[in-house]
Amino acid sequence: MTTPDQEQEARPSESYARRQNVIAASVLFVVGAGAALLSWQLGIGDLADPGPGMWPLIVSVAMAVIAVVLVVRSAPTGEEERFGRESLVVAAGVVSLLGYVFLFERVGFEIPTVALLVLWLKLLGRESWLMTAIVSLSATTAIYLLFITGLGVSLPHIVHF
Amino acid sequence: MDFLSPVLDGFGVVFQPDNLLYCLLGVTLGMLVGVLPGLGPAATIAILLPITYNIEPTSAIIMLAGIFYGAQYGGTITSVLLRLPGEASSVVTAIDGHEMARQGRAGAALGIAAIGSFIGGTIAIVALTFVAPLVSGFAIDFGPAEYTMLALLGILLVTTLGTGSIFKSLAMATLGLLLATIGQDPLLGTARLTFGSDQLLDGIDFVIVAMGLFGVGEILYNLEALRKKAPKAAPVGSVYPTRKDFSESKGAIARGSLSGFLLGILPGGGATMSSMVAYAVEKKATKRPEKFGRGAIQGVAGPETANNAAATSSFIPLLSLGIPANATMAIMFGALMLQGITPGPLLVEEEPQLFWGVVNSMYIGNLLLLAMSLPLIGIFVRILKVRAAILAPLTILITMIGVYTVRNNVFDMYLVIGLGLLGYLMKKVGFEPGPLVLAFVLGGILESAFRRSMRTFDGELSGFLGEPIAASLLGAIVLLILLSVLRAVRSRNKATQNKENKNSDVTPAEREPEDGAEQRDRDPAEHP
Asked: Across the interface, do B181 and A124 touch by the CB < 8 Å criterion?
């Protein structure tokens, strides 16, 4: 939940919101149309004996039709928010998560976990170094104890007892 | 009485020390996520799904249910003290609740909300005890035709009664249905829309969808506001309402219990809508409507009672029909399936221990929550000081590792990040994740029910009209579509009218209640 002040900051202009709505609806249309094509190729059979593509075809055609309606009715609904500089934090967050998963399997969960915590706490959250160190080390230990020692989950890990 | 003996046995299940502990854990967690703005109950339940794998089914569902109704209590605290609703269902509470806090009556607002919630919740549990088996008994002979219509009606109700734009919600519902078709054809085994990936052959796990869209999506969305300082909370004072407070709000609590219970049963209704309806009802019922928006205690008591009653009664369609009424219930549905339990009309007969154990645990849970909201409220108010910058990285880590533990598979982690990004983008562009997740859950049921009915009807769509119950459900669907079209046309006319006299004042009363808090801030002059 955001505060009203933030909401007001994030409120885009009408043309911005409209453009955003049209882009979103077009993406949905392309996905719907593409899925319809793929479903058609799967073979649709007939209603009494539907093939594997019948149901996905019905759904994706419905989706494409609704997407067209959304393009036509693209006036802002008041729920749109603009992308601003703060959206870059989200991009950084996503990239760091992808990096986390990439390393997770290769070097065990410990080092990437500490690294991710440091990155989010210090760089994204601007916490103090002391707080960063305390939280990242204790959280990694807690995850180890909870998942590996407690629940017996086979996480890839390098520290063994 | 035969009927009551399994109900009483259920108490035996609840009073097992393990289950009491899980109930306490659930409601405490619920209270916490209710207090902490950002992570809602749906996201929390989604994030905790992998952990419930290792817990006994009854205990797991008792805990998850506790999170859900516990969050309804917790959400009030931030609404009243910060005018920052922790949950969507507490948005309207913020209007009068925060005004009361500014007048130094925060304690009274929180106290009456807690007492109202307790009464509303308890009445709803009693009603649930009688209504759910009745519905199950009625639905026990439902065949594929009825389930096709029921699932369709469920999806349509959620999209049309939801808070967002109808067409945006419908688009999300179709996307959810489409995502549900990925993987092998349920009857023929053909790979569908997998793009040749073996990883997708089993379909996308429901847990991944829920965790991605709700968990990761919400965390990413909140990252934007990560560095913002938390606003200062108003002082609480005594939480025990006076005799005058009681006599002013007893009508609101009674009406809230009833409307909340009824709306909660309706698919798409649920806690958020019932709180808004209760607010509107109280405003109509009072002799002094001018007090609303200026700290009317009925404006807190009504919605808070209603959202708890609705949270409880929304278990009815899930437990007795197997049709989730809202997004959180969709995640509960997923949690039950994970445990190998199919929610539906047979549940009360086949799993009486689980059914009555979960239902009866709600009495205990509500008692615990009452204790947490009155004498122990100070602890939860202190939690408001925990910074989002510390919480966000911890929740994302638990999510990522939780996802891995579902299948010990790194592919799922990438998938959850992708879905999280989708969830974030959807929020920015004004699409609700709820209808998508709900449709995803119902997608499998809907497809197999539709295909089986088509086979029985020999491919004739008119076959649905031959089944009385299916036909009446179809009638309800048609009626619903007509009503929505009418509403869309009317709101469009209103929009053009508003455009014509753009600078004229719109009073808060004419606005949707959900805009209330925000509207008030823009026009402070209207409320001296």
From this structure: no
